[in-house]
Amino acid sequence: MPLVTTQPPSSSRDPAPIVDREDLKVIRREFSLGEVHGLVFLPNGVLNRNWRIQTGNGDFALKLLHRADAKEVSRSARVLTALARLGLPVPTWVPTRGGEPLLQIGPRSYGLSHWADGTHLPGRQLSLEQAAEFGTLVADLQRVLNDPLRVPLPGTGPRPQASPGGVESALATVERLAATCRALPNPTPFDTRALDLLERRRELLAAHAGHAPSFGPWGGPYGWTHGDLGWRNILHHHGQVSAVLDWDRLAVRSFAHEVARTAVVQFDSEDGVLDLARVAAFVRGYRAATPLPRMVLAQAVERLWWKHLVSFWIFEFHYDQADASADVVLEPVERLAAWWSSHRGAVQDAFAS
């Protein structure tokens, strides 16, 4: 089979990323892959780049990691091995010939895992029962990750703190980014749209300046968490979760924060509207496995909403770091911030179910 790549969704004008042929030779050798029959780009990632690589020794998922930390990837590889042995739906990492979890080729960091069958399903495509089952799976993962007898992770350390984000600093960021857009000699349609979205964010901040939640220590239980359980990192096969992917954000966090963030990134949509029925089902499934006080979760939800108002990470990636990898999610993220700001009560009701 010749080497092939798929194209990204039709909404993208960029060609599918292709693995450098010299890199591919090194990848084959260092991972002992044998003959490579096919290489198919997987377009669902946002920051990392992923391919299905078909070889004489089986199929694998090849990942070009965005800003990889070798120490953290090594830790995640050990965790995945332990989770897989316990029967949890995770892919196992494949080490290089030298036993390393990452293959470094110049500035590029590649990781390889065994292929997992399944489809990425936006959360809105899950049934209410599946949404609840996913909530239970998140609780199970948190519980197992924090069992030192089964998973090789260090202690959790001190209670995590919620970082404050003030209106004044957020408005200053709006001004700085807007000035950057205006100063461009040849603005693109993205730049024009970004300037409009920054103005809308300024209006949201002005309207909700007095609604900032309290900051400080996170309430409720905390410990090791996956950190990015959006639908792009979940595979479904035959109605069940077949794999939880992308463990490079493994860190100690508030459990309530992970529950709130997971529900939002699973059940949002391109139009920025949360599917509150599925949010409620997800939370019920989680609580059926792990008790979580409603007040603790309510606090996490408000803090997450506020973070959406004062965070400009996509703009900063694009304009400060010349990194367009997250541009595709700018519009949905901004729509969500606006919709959520107008429906805070309904969102809290869903999480309180």
From TrEMBL:
InterPro entries membership: Aminoglycoside_PTrfase, Kinase-like_dom_sf
Gene3D superfamilies: 3.90.1200.10, Phosphorylase Kinase, domain 1
Domain Aminoglycoside phosphotransferase stretches: 41-289
A Pfam match: APH
Coiled-coil segments on the chain, per record: none
Top-rank lineage group of the source organism: Bacteria
Name this protein carries in UniProt: Aminoglycoside phosphotransferase domain-containing protein
Annotated source species: Streptomyces montanus
Taxonomic lineage of the native organism: Bacteria, Bacillati, Actinomycetota, Actinomycetes, Kitasatosporales
